[in-house]
């Protein structure tokens, strides 16, 4: 019998400083637009998005 594995769900603030092999990030339309334009380090929402997108060691998936 194969053991089920839990998938953690957390905010980017809870994930800060931690890493996983693969990370799924739910992007809002405003997040996708910010990524197309480039993130602004003085914008708190952009900093949070950066943290969320940099938690993966191998791959990040937009969900």
UniProtKB/TrEMBL annotation:
It holds the Pfam family UvrD_C_2. It comes from the Bacteria. Residues 10-58 form the UvrD-like helicase C-terminal domain. InterPro entries: P-loop_NTPase (IPR027417), UvrD-like_helicase_C (IPR027785). One of its GO terms (molecular function) is hydrolase activity. Coiled coil: none annotated. This is UvrD-like helicase C-terminal domain-containing protein.
